[in-house]
Recover the amino acids of this structure.
């Protein structure tokens, strides 16, 4: 195969007309010419940190959508499915990914479960993690979310880090808000990246401690605007990632959108593309072609350096996407799951109070962020029970252990979901993926939760008992067996139904999924109770 165009040489920071010859998937020659076709050839994009499961697609279906946007590889943390199905879940993701030419690079999940304050479907101890790290299919130790365990040198945490060092594989971080000596000590343990920064000064603090910063722009967490100046200040320390991206947004764009935004903001083209293409490959030591003679032919062709319209995507010399159309075939898949929860009754969602007045702790969800605030608000009490207060936008929230048949319902309250009617529920509830729900009334809450128990996982919208909609996710309660376009269309329909209930959130299901993520402060809810992420301890609902 031969292709010509204006080649972007990121290592020598120059653009020149060239002809590229590919033989058996390898670039065998790059010849500079006097002129070339009016198109640009550059390395393919890499998502430096993503949970494929959050796309609600299995890897092969994810690849079908990502290649359209010029993505050729992902650094993928499978800890979502690992929290449900353990090592078998990790093996499932790897096996499915090998049925696609797309280049998936999986890590060994470091925090299954993320904390001892919640119930997961599996536990990966240091021995299991060390075994995974010996596999050639595992490229790094996935995000070490238990940052208190690192700072206080928890033996199990340190054993996992030591196993990664022994295997010679990088260690990913997860340290929201960590600064100063804590950031220095966290990085000194051997942790090399962080994707949880929300502000420039925090990012620079962590860079000073020795970490690389992954600028995240996902469906819920959007940190690009706060961090993009790093591309000017410390471009050699920057990568791009999406972390969690729902299928409707993956239909529209991926890393290509961050590249386009960055160039339009005036950041240096070579610095931007190095962050998108080169830095992840070098940091994680990935066998990805970077548009040099002898490299795998992993590259893309774009129309210009303003729009970055992806005309063609090649992986190992194979044309996998062209002009907005994926050329990867549909792959039939079989589900894997772990689900034991039994149906609930409306009385399971009642919160009795002995007094006529009470002040309660309320989780304040923040649009575009994973962090929350803790509010203290007067409770609305009806017939001796604390109920949702739509006038103040304070709604009841529930988390139910899905791995135990007779588990009780953990209850709390949350602000900023904006529902005026009904309830939302999901079995995508980071990181243990128990059932998580928010609603205006107990009838709707119970109906949404039971719909997911009946389907053994998915997302649901309910308005009382009579109007209930579900999108089943048969693969671990996290992913569909459908194609990318099918899943995107189904999710778009569910998102629209959620917004018809009144929520103003951009991605309500994605935001809901993070309200049980205890390792991100300040206040969250697990299946065991309300949790103060700042103190790393349970806290009562009543102040």
């Amino acid at each position: 195969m031969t292709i010509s165009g204006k080649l972007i040489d990121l290592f020598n920071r120059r653009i020149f007309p060239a002809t590229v010859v590919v033989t058996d998937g390898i670039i065998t020659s790059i010849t500079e010419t006097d002129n070339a076709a009016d198109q640009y050839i550059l390395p393919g994009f890499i998502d430096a940190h993503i949970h494929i499961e959050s796309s609600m697609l299995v890897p092969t279906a994810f690849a079908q959508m990502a290649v359209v946007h010029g993505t050729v590889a992902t650094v993928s943390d499978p800890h979502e499915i690992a929290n449900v199905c353990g090592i078998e879940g990790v093996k499932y993701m790897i096996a499915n990914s090998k049925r696609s030419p797309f280049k998936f690079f999986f890590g060994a999940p470091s925090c299954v479960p993320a904390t001892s304050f919640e119930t997961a479907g599996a536990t990966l101890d240091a021995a299991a993690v060390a075994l995974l790290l010996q596999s050639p299919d595992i490229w790094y130790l996935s995000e070490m979310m238990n940052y208190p365990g690192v700072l206080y040198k928890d033996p199990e945490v340190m054993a996992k880090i030591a196993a990664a060092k022994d295997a010679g594989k990088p260690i990913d971080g997860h340290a929201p808000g960590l600064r100063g000596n804590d950031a220095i000590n966290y990085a000194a343990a051997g942790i090399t990246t962080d994707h949880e920064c929300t502000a420039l000064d925090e990012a620079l603090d962590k860079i000073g401690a020795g970490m690389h910063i992954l600028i995240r722009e996902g469906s819920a967490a959007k940190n690009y605007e706060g961090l993009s100046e790093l591309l000017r200040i410390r471009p050699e320390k920057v990568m791009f990632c999406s972390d969690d991206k729902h299928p409707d947004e993956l239909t529209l764009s991926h890393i290509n959108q961050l590249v386009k935004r960055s160039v339009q903001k005036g950041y240096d083209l070579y610095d931007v593309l190095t962050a998108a293409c080169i830095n992840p490959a070098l940091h994680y030591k990935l066998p990805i072609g970077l548009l040099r003679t002898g490299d795998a032919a992993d590259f893309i062709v774009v129309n210009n350096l303003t729009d970055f319209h992806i005309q063609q995507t090649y992986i190992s010399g194979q044309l996998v996407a062209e002009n907005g159309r994926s050329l990867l075939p549909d792959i039939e898949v079989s589900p894997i799951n772990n689900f034991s929860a039994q149906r609930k009754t409306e009385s399971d969602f009642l919160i009795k109070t002995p007094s006529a007045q009470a002040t309660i702790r309320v989780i304040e969800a923040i649009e575009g962020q994973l962090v929350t605030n803790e509010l203290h608000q007067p409770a609305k009490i009806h017939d001796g029970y604390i109920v949702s207060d739509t006038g103040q936008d304070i709604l009841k929230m529930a988390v139910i252990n899905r791995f135990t048949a007779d588990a009780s319902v953990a209850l709390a309250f949350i602000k900023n979901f904006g529902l005026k009617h009904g309830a939302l529920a999901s079995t995508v509830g980071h990181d243990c993926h128990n059932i998580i729900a928010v609603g205006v009334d107990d009838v709707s809450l119970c109906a949404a939760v039971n719909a997911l128990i009946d389907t053994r996982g998915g997302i649901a919208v309910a308005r009382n008992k009579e109007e209930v909609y579900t999108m089943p996710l048969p693969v671990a309660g996290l992913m569909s067996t459908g194609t990318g376009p099918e899943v995107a269309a189904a999710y778009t329909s569910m998102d629209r139904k959620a917004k018809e209930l009144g929520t103003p959130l951009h991605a309500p299901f994605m935001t809901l999924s993070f309200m049980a993520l205890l390792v991100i402060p300040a206040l969250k809810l697990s299946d065991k109770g309300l949790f103060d992420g700042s103190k790393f301890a349970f806290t009562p609902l009543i102040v």
Observations:
- The radius of gyration is 23 Å.
- Residues 64 and 329 are 8 Å apart (CA to CA).
- The first strand starts at residue 2 and ends at 9.
